TrEMBL record:
Annotated ranges, domain Ig-like: 93-166, 171-269
Highest taxon, organism lineage: Eukaryota
UniProt keywords, alphabetically: Cell membrane, Disulfide bond, Glycoprotein, Immunoglobulin domain, Membrane, Transmembrane, Transmembrane helix
Record-given protein name: Basigin
Record localization: Cell membrane
GO CC aspect terms: plasma membrane
Region (Disordered): 305-336
Membrane topology, as annotated: Single-pass type I membrane protein
TM region(s), chain numbering: 276-297
InterPro entries: Cell_adhesion_signaling (IPR051275), Ig-like_dom (IPR007110), Ig-like_dom_sf (IPR036179), Ig-like_fold (IPR013783), Ig_sub (IPR003599)
Length: 336
Protein backbone atom coordinates (compact mmCIF):
# COMPACT_ATOMS: atom_id res chain seq x y z
CA UNK A 1 0.00 0.00 0.00
CA UNK A 2 1.14 3.57 -0.67
CA UNK A 3 -0.41 6.85 0.34
CA UNK A 4 0.82 10.44 0.61
CA UNK A 5 -0.10 13.79 2.15
CA UNK A 6 -1.70 12.05 5.09
CA UNK A 7 -0.50 14.33 7.84
CA UNK A 8 1.27 17.62 8.36
CA UNK A 9 4.32 16.73 10.39
CA UNK A 10 7.27 18.41 12.05
CA UNK A 11 10.65 16.81 12.64
CA UNK A 12 12.35 18.27 15.71
CA UNK A 13 16.01 17.27 15.70
CA UNK A 14 17.43 16.54 19.13
CA UNK A 15 20.90 15.12 18.41
CA UNK A 16 23.01 13.32 15.82
CA UNK A 17 24.13 9.69 16.15
CA UNK A 18 26.31 7.37 14.09
CA UNK A 19 23.16 5.97 12.50
CA UNK A 20 21.57 9.30 11.69
CA UNK A 21 19.55 11.85 13.62
CA UNK A 22 17.37 11.07 16.58
CA UNK A 23 14.35 13.29 16.88
CA UNK A 24 10.65 13.67 17.46
CA UNK A 25 8.11 13.33 14.68
CA UNK A 26 4.91 15.24 15.35
CA UNK A 27 2.00 14.76 12.98
CA UNK A 28 -1.42 16.32 13.24
CA UNK A 29 -3.89 13.88 14.70
CA UNK A 30 -1.17 11.58 15.98
CA UNK A 31 0.83 11.49 19.18
CA UNK A 32 4.54 12.39 18.95
CA UNK A 33 6.91 9.48 18.26
CA UNK A 34 10.69 9.17 18.51
CA UNK A 35 12.56 7.61 15.58
CA UNK A 36 16.07 7.13 14.25
CA UNK A 37 16.55 8.86 10.91
CA UNK A 38 18.17 6.42 8.49
CA UNK A 39 18.38 8.69 5.46
CA UNK A 40 18.86 12.43 5.08
CA UNK A 41 19.36 14.43 1.88
CA UNK A 42 19.14 18.06 0.77
CA UNK A 43 17.28 19.03 -2.38
CA UNK A 44 17.36 22.72 -3.30
CA UNK A 45 18.29 23.55 0.27
CA UNK A 46 15.30 21.61 1.50
CA UNK A 47 15.83 18.56 3.69
CA UNK A 48 14.12 15.24 3.24
CA UNK A 49 14.24 12.81 6.16
CA UNK A 50 13.53 9.08 6.04
CA UNK A 51 12.92 6.84 9.06
CA UNK A 52 11.48 3.46 9.83
CA UNK A 53 8.70 2.27 12.09
CA UNK A 54 7.94 -1.46 12.27
CA UNK A 55 7.71 -2.54 8.63
CA UNK A 56 6.79 0.85 7.20
CA UNK A 57 9.12 3.43 5.73
CA UNK A 58 8.30 7.08 6.42
CA UNK A 59 9.57 10.00 4.34
CA UNK A 60 9.23 13.59 5.50
CA UNK A 61 9.13 15.96 2.55
CA UNK A 62 9.37 19.71 3.43
CA UNK A 63 6.33 21.76 2.53
CA UNK A 64 7.07 24.87 0.53
CA UNK A 65 6.24 28.09 2.30
CA UNK A 66 6.15 26.48 5.72
CA UNK A 67 6.13 29.03 8.48
CA UNK A 68 8.58 27.23 10.73
CA UNK A 69 10.19 29.68 13.10
CA UNK A 70 12.81 27.46 14.78
CA UNK A 71 16.01 26.22 13.16
CA UNK A 72 15.69 22.67 14.38
CA UNK A 73 12.16 22.06 13.15
CA UNK A 74 11.12 21.04 9.64
CA UNK A 75 7.47 21.06 8.71
CA UNK A 76 6.21 19.06 5.77
CA UNK A 77 4.19 16.20 4.38
CA UNK A 78 4.80 12.61 5.43
CA UNK A 79 4.72 9.86 2.82
CA UNK A 80 4.14 6.36 4.16
CA UNK A 81 5.54 3.69 1.89
CA UNK A 82 5.11 -0.02 2.60
CA UNK A 83 7.56 -1.75 0.25
CA UNK A 84 6.53 -5.40 -0.07
CA UNK A 85 8.21 -8.51 -1.48
CA UNK A 86 6.11 -11.38 -2.77
CA UNK A 87 8.02 -14.66 -2.64
CA UNK A 88 7.53 -18.14 -4.00
CA UNK A 89 6.24 -20.70 -1.47
CA UNK A 90 8.68 -22.53 0.77
CA UNK A 91 10.31 -25.61 -0.76
CA UNK A 92 9.46 -29.05 0.58
CA UNK A 93 12.31 -31.46 -0.10
CA UNK A 94 10.06 -34.48 0.40
CA UNK A 95 8.35 -34.07 -2.95
CA UNK A 96 10.65 -31.72 -4.90
CA UNK A 97 13.96 -32.60 -6.53
CA UNK A 98 14.61 -29.08 -7.87
CA UNK A 99 13.16 -25.63 -7.25
CA UNK A 100 13.15 -22.04 -8.49
CA UNK A 101 12.95 -19.34 -5.83
CA UNK A 102 11.48 -15.97 -6.78
CA UNK A 103 10.99 -12.52 -5.25
CA UNK A 104 8.85 -9.68 -6.58
CA UNK A 105 9.37 -6.21 -5.04
CA UNK A 106 6.46 -3.78 -5.06
CA UNK A 107 6.17 -0.15 -3.93
CA UNK A 108 9.88 0.59 -3.50
CA UNK A 109 10.43 4.04 -1.99
CA UNK A 110 13.60 4.67 -3.98
CA UNK A 111 15.05 3.14 -7.16
CA UNK A 112 16.65 -0.29 -6.91
CA UNK A 113 20.41 -0.21 -7.52
CA UNK A 114 21.01 -3.95 -7.45
CA UNK A 115 20.18 -7.20 -5.69
CA UNK A 116 21.63 -10.51 -4.55
CA UNK A 117 20.71 -13.82 -2.87
CA UNK A 118 21.96 -15.31 0.39
CA UNK A 119 21.85 -18.82 1.85
CA UNK A 120 22.05 -19.08 5.64
CA UNK A 121 23.46 -15.56 5.80
CA UNK A 122 26.18 -16.03 3.16
CA UNK A 123 26.02 -14.35 -0.23
CA UNK A 124 25.56 -16.90 -3.01
CA UNK A 125 28.30 -16.80 -5.64
CA UNK A 126 27.46 -14.98 -8.86
CA UNK A 127 24.12 -13.76 -7.48
CA UNK A 128 25.12 -10.10 -7.08
CA UNK A 129 24.02 -7.75 -9.88
CA UNK A 130 23.54 -4.03 -10.45
CA UNK A 131 20.22 -4.58 -12.18
CA UNK A 132 17.20 -2.47 -11.25
CA UNK A 133 14.79 -5.36 -11.84
CA UNK A 134 12.02 -5.81 -9.29
CA UNK A 135 11.52 -9.52 -10.02
CA UNK A 136 14.43 -11.93 -9.48
CA UNK A 137 14.87 -15.71 -9.40
CA UNK A 138 17.35 -18.25 -8.05
CA UNK A 139 17.46 -21.84 -9.29
CA UNK A 140 18.25 -24.82 -7.04
CA UNK A 141 19.15 -27.72 -9.32
CA UNK A 142 19.05 -30.37 -6.60
CA UNK A 143 17.09 -30.06 -3.39
CA UNK A 144 18.90 -32.04 -0.68
CA UNK A 145 20.57 -31.49 2.67
CA UNK A 146 23.44 -29.65 0.94
CA UNK A 147 21.18 -27.01 -0.64
CA UNK A 148 18.56 -26.77 2.13
CA UNK A 149 18.50 -23.69 4.32
CA UNK A 150 17.17 -20.19 4.79
CA UNK A 151 17.40 -18.21 1.54
CA UNK A 152 16.95 -14.46 1.29
CA UNK A 153 16.56 -12.09 -1.65
CA UNK A 154 18.03 -8.64 -0.97
CA UNK A 155 17.16 -5.51 -2.95
CA UNK A 156 19.60 -2.61 -2.76
CA UNK A 157 17.36 0.39 -2.28
CA UNK A 158 16.85 3.02 0.42
CA UNK A 159 16.56 1.44 2.84
CA UNK A 160 17.63 -2.09 1.91
CA UNK A 161 14.74 -4.57 1.84
CA UNK A 162 14.76 -8.36 1.87
CA UNK A 163 12.54 -11.41 2.20
CA UNK A 164 13.26 -15.02 3.19
CA UNK A 165 12.29 -18.36 1.68
CA UNK A 166 12.78 -21.65 3.52
CA UNK A 167 14.03 -24.75 1.71
CA UNK A 168 13.28 -27.69 4.02
CA UNK A 169 14.35 -31.33 3.83
CA UNK A 170 14.39 -34.28 6.25
CA UNK A 171 17.54 -34.40 8.39
CA UNK A 172 20.66 -36.17 7.16
CA UNK A 173 22.09 -38.14 10.10
CA UNK A 174 25.58 -39.69 10.03
CA UNK A 175 27.58 -41.51 12.70
CA UNK A 176 30.73 -39.70 13.75
CA UNK A 177 32.52 -43.09 13.81
CA UNK A 178 31.26 -46.34 12.30
CA UNK A 179 32.57 -48.34 15.26
CA UNK A 180 33.62 -47.56 18.82
CA UNK A 181 35.95 -49.65 21.00
CA UNK A 182 36.00 -49.57 24.81
CA UNK A 183 37.13 -51.74 27.71
CA UNK A 184 34.85 -53.64 30.03
CA UNK A 185 33.71 -51.62 33.09
CA UNK A 186 34.65 -48.39 31.28
CA UNK A 187 32.35 -45.82 29.60
CA UNK A 188 31.71 -45.57 25.83
CA UNK A 189 30.54 -42.47 23.96
CA UNK A 190 28.59 -42.88 20.70
CA UNK A 191 28.11 -39.74 18.58
CA UNK A 192 25.90 -38.85 15.61
CA UNK A 193 25.79 -35.60 13.61
CA UNK A 194 23.03 -34.03 11.51
CA UNK A 195 23.13 -31.82 8.42
CA UNK A 196 20.43 -30.00 6.49
CA UNK A 197 17.59 -27.63 7.32
CA UNK A 198 15.76 -27.60 9.61
CA UNK A 199 17.91 -29.40 12.18
CA UNK A 200 16.33 -32.22 14.21
CA UNK A 201 13.99 -31.30 17.02
CA UNK A 202 14.10 -34.80 18.49
CA UNK A 203 16.82 -37.45 18.88
CA UNK A 204 16.28 -41.14 19.67
CA UNK A 205 18.69 -44.03 20.31
CA UNK A 206 18.03 -47.76 19.88
CA UNK A 207 19.91 -50.95 20.84
CA UNK A 208 19.60 -53.43 17.97
CA UNK A 209 19.48 -57.21 17.93
CA UNK A 210 21.80 -59.40 15.86
CA UNK A 211 19.34 -59.25 12.95
CA UNK A 212 19.35 -55.40 13.35
CA UNK A 213 15.76 -55.28 14.52
CA UNK A 214 15.04 -52.99 17.47
CA UNK A 215 15.78 -54.61 20.81
CA UNK A 216 15.50 -51.62 23.14
CA UNK A 217 14.47 -47.97 22.74
CA UNK A 218 16.81 -45.97 24.96
CA UNK A 219 15.04 -43.21 26.88
CA UNK A 220 17.18 -40.53 28.48
CA UNK A 221 17.07 -40.75 32.27
CA UNK A 222 15.16 -44.03 32.39
CA UNK A 223 18.26 -46.08 33.22
CA UNK A 224 21.43 -45.08 35.06
CA UNK A 225 23.39 -47.02 32.46
CA UNK A 226 22.51 -44.58 29.65
CA UNK A 227 22.81 -40.82 29.36
CA UNK A 228 21.96 -38.71 26.29
CA UNK A 229 23.23 -35.22 25.52
CA UNK A 230 21.54 -33.55 22.55
CA UNK A 231 21.98 -30.36 20.54
CA UNK A 232 20.14 -29.51 17.31
CA UNK A 233 22.99 -30.83 15.14
CA UNK A 234 24.50 -33.53 17.40
CA UNK A 235 23.55 -36.30 19.80
CA UNK A 236 25.83 -38.23 22.18
CA UNK A 237 24.96 -41.48 23.98
CA UNK A 238 26.99 -42.42 27.05
CA UNK A 239 26.98 -46.14 27.88
CA UNK A 240 28.34 -46.62 31.41
CA UNK A 241 29.82 -49.62 33.23
CA UNK A 242 30.23 -51.64 30.05
CA UNK A 243 29.45 -55.33 30.10
CA UNK A 244 31.01 -57.50 27.43
CA UNK A 245 27.93 -59.73 27.17
CA UNK A 246 25.02 -57.26 27.24
CA UNK A 247 26.38 -53.95 25.88
CA UNK A 248 28.38 -55.05 22.87
CA UNK A 249 26.50 -54.79 19.57
CA UNK A 250 24.87 -52.40 17.11
CA UNK A 251 23.28 -49.07 18.12
CA UNK A 252 21.09 -46.78 16.02
CA UNK A 253 20.70 -42.99 16.30
CA UNK A 254 17.67 -41.28 14.74
CA UNK A 255 17.02 -37.58 14.17
CA UNK A 256 13.55 -36.18 13.44
CA UNK A 257 12.34 -32.79 12.20
CA UNK A 258 9.04 -31.57 10.78
CA UNK A 259 9.93 -33.02 7.36
CA UNK A 260 10.76 -36.56 8.46
CA UNK A 261 13.40 -38.79 10.07
CA UNK A 262 16.76 -40.30 9.20
CA UNK A 263 19.08 -42.67 11.09
CA UNK A 264 22.52 -44.25 11.10
CA UNK A 265 24.24 -47.14 12.97
CA UNK A 266 27.31 -47.53 15.17
CA UNK A 267 29.02 -50.81 16.17
CA UNK A 268 30.12 -50.92 19.84
CA UNK A 269 32.91 -53.39 20.63
CA UNK A 270 33.70 -54.17 24.27
CA UNK A 271 37.09 -55.64 25.17
CA UNK A 272 37.76 -57.86 28.17
CA UNK A 273 39.58 -56.37 31.12
CA UNK A 274 42.43 -58.77 30.33
CA UNK A 275 42.67 -57.48 26.79
CA UNK A 276 45.56 -55.21 27.72
CA UNK A 277 47.57 -58.25 28.89
CA UNK A 278 47.27 -60.19 25.65
CA UNK A 279 49.98 -58.25 23.78
CA UNK A 280 52.39 -58.72 26.70
CA UNK A 281 51.59 -62.42 26.99
CA UNK A 282 52.08 -62.81 23.26
CA UNK A 283 55.54 -61.24 23.44
CA UNK A 284 56.50 -63.49 26.37
CA UNK A 285 55.30 -66.55 24.48
CA UNK A 286 57.33 -65.58 21.40
CA UNK A 287 60.46 -65.12 23.52
CA UNK A 288 59.99 -68.52 25.20
CA UNK A 289 59.48 -70.27 21.87
CA UNK A 290 62.56 -68.58 20.39
CA UNK A 291 64.73 -69.61 23.37
CA UNK A 292 63.46 -73.21 23.10
CA UNK A 293 64.30 -73.35 19.39
CA UNK A 294 67.82 -72.04 20.01
CA UNK A 295 68.38 -74.51 22.88
CA UNK A 296 67.22 -77.52 20.84
CA UNK A 297 69.33 -76.44 17.88
CA UNK A 298 72.45 -76.10 20.03
CA UNK A 299 71.89 -79.53 21.67
CA UNK A 300 71.56 -81.26 18.31
CA UNK A 301 74.53 -79.48 16.74
CA UNK A 302 77.22 -80.30 19.40
CA UNK A 303 77.68 -84.10 18.80
CA UNK A 304 78.18 -83.58 15.07
CA UNK A 305 80.78 -80.89 15.68
CA UNK A 306 82.77 -83.17 18.10
CA UNK A 307 82.96 -85.99 15.50
CA UNK A 308 84.11 -83.52 12.86
CA UNK A 309 86.87 -82.29 15.18
CA UNK A 310 88.13 -85.87 15.84
CA UNK A 311 88.29 -86.66 12.13
CA UNK A 312 90.15 -83.50 11.26
CA UNK A 313 92.73 -84.14 14.10
CA UNK A 314 93.71 -87.72 13.08
CA UNK A 315 94.40 -86.97 9.45
CA UNK A 316 97.51 -84.86 10.05
CA UNK A 317 99.01 -87.62 12.32
CA UNK A 318 98.81 -90.20 9.55
CA UNK A 319 100.32 -87.83 7.08
CA UNK A 320 103.22 -86.99 9.36
CA UNK A 321 103.99 -90.66 10.06
CA UNK A 322 104.12 -91.45 6.39
CA UNK A 323 106.44 -88.54 5.74
CA UNK A 324 108.82 -89.56 8.54
CA UNK A 325 108.88 -93.14 7.24
CA UNK A 326 109.83 -91.97 3.76
CA UNK A 327 112.58 -89.73 5.12
CA UNK A 328 114.02 -92.65 7.09
CA UNK A 329 114.19 -94.88 4.00
CA UNK A 330 115.97 -92.13 2.06
CA UNK A 331 118.60 -91.76 4.75
CA UNK A 332 119.20 -95.53 4.85
CA UNK A 333 119.75 -95.68 1.08
CA UNK A 334 122.14 -92.81 1.17
CA UNK A 335 124.22 -94.45 3.89
CA UNK A 336 124.52 -97.57 1.82
Amino acid sequence: RRSSSLYTCAFSSALRTSRGRRGIIECSGKRPDIYIVTYLKTFNHEKEAVWRSSRCLYRLVPSRGSDSTTSNTEVGRVIISNAAITTSPEVNGQNQTSATLSCNLTNPTFPVKGHYWTNNGKIIDKSETNSDELYIEHEIKKVDYHSAGLYACVFLTEPQVNATIEVKVPPHVVAYKRSENANEKDKAVLTCMSQGYPLPTDWTWYKLKDDESVETAIVNGSDVKYEMKNTPNKTMLYVKDLDINSDMGMYQCQGTNQMGSHSDKIQLRVRSQLAALWPFLGIVAEVIILIAIIFIYEKRRKPDEINDDDDSGSAPLKSNAATNHKDKNVRQRNSN
